[in-house]
Amino acid sequence: MEALFIGHAYIDVTFLTDTLPTGDDKTIADDYAVSFGGNAVTAAFAAAKMGVRPDLLCTLADDWLSLMFREMARSARVRLHDRKVSEASLSFIMPKDGKRAIVRCRDDNYLHPFPTRPPSDLAQQRFAQAACVSFTQGTRITLATGAQKPVQDLVVGDRILTRDAGAQPLRWIGHSTQRAIGDFAPVLIRAGALNNAEDLRVSPDHRLFVYQRTDRIGAGRAELRVRARHLINNDSVVQDVGGFVDYFQLLFDTHQIVYAEGIAAETLRLDRRTQPAVPVETQESVTAALPQAANTPTREFDMPEHLARPELAALLKGASTL
After folding, report:
1. How many angstroms separate the CA atoms of 11 and 123, rounded?
2. What is the pTM of this model?
3. What is the per-residue pLDDT across 147-195, written as a single tens digit (0 to 9) for each?
4. 5, 40 Cβ separation under 8 angstroms
C-alpha cells in the first residue's frame, strides 16, 4: 500500500444561478456539473493522477450513485474499501461572487464497524477474496423467522436460519466488487436446476449441501457438499463471465450451512487463506468463541472431484427429489 486516505464520499451537484427559488417558484440554472467530493476522495484521486496507487476507505452504499463512484474509481485505479451506509451522500453547491453555499445530505449511519487496520497488500487480499465463499448481490437468505432478506441488506446481529444449529447471529459481513472473470466469475444456478425457485449466483468454489435420497452419482453417502463449479453444464448451470460482480461473505461463530434462494449453502470458514479478508478484531472475537479445533476443515462430506460430470446437476436434482 502506497497511500491510504480515509473519509466521507459525496456526490457533488454544482449549479450556477442568480437566485434560489422559494415556495412554488422555479428557476433554470445557467449551468451545472456533477462530480465526486470529500477531502479524502479529492486527495486520493489527485494521488492517483500523480502516479501513486492509493487506497481509499470511504462511505459507500448499494445504490446507483455509489455504483457511478465505483466505476470512476476503477478508471482512476483507486482501490476502494467500503464503510457501508444505506444511501450515498449528496452535496448541492451554489457558487457566487467568489463564495459558495452548500447544502449537504449526509448518511453517516454506518452499517459496519470501522476497521482497525489498514487494508492488506493487494495480492494477499485478492488471494483471500478468491478463497472466500461468497453470495452475489440480490441473493435472498432465509432468516430465523422464515422470511427471506437480500444478502446486501443483512446487518451484523441478524439471526439467520442454519441447517445444523438453528437460529444463529451473524457476526460479520464482507463485501467486495470484482471483475467477473476467471476465479471471480460467479456460477449461475438457474431456477429449477437444484429444485431452487429462483436463480442463485455464488462464487465458483462455494459448496452447496445436497441430501441424496438415492445415491445416483456413486458417492457412497447421502449427504454431500458439492462445489458450484462442478455443477457447470453450460445449460442449467453456467459460469456468468463479464462485467463486475458484488460478492458478500457471511461469517458466524462457527462454519454453518444457511439457505440461499432455498438451496443449502455454506458460509465463510475462517482459516489461513481467508483471514486477510476479515478485520483483525472480528477474527479475534470469532476465534475466542470457537470450541477447540472447531475451525478444522472436515472433508468427509465433500464430493470427490472425479465424480464431477456434465449431468451432475440433473442427477443430484433427481436424487434429492421425493
Report:
1. 30
2. 0.61
3. 999 999 999 899 999 999 999 999 888 888 787 888 889 999 999 999 8
4. yes
pLDDT in tens, 12-33: 899 998 877 888 888 888 899 9
Give the whole-angstrom CA distance, residue 104 versus residue 90. Answer: 6
What is the length of the chain? 322
Angle at 266 between CA 237 and CA 294, to 5 degrees: 155
Please check whether residue 38 is in contact with residue 58, taking contact to mean a CB–CB distance below 8 angstroms.
yes
Distance between CA atoms of residues 124 and 134, nearest Å = 17
DSSP-assigned beta bridge partners for residue 105: 90
Confidence band, pLDDT 50/70/90 cuts, at residue 283:
low
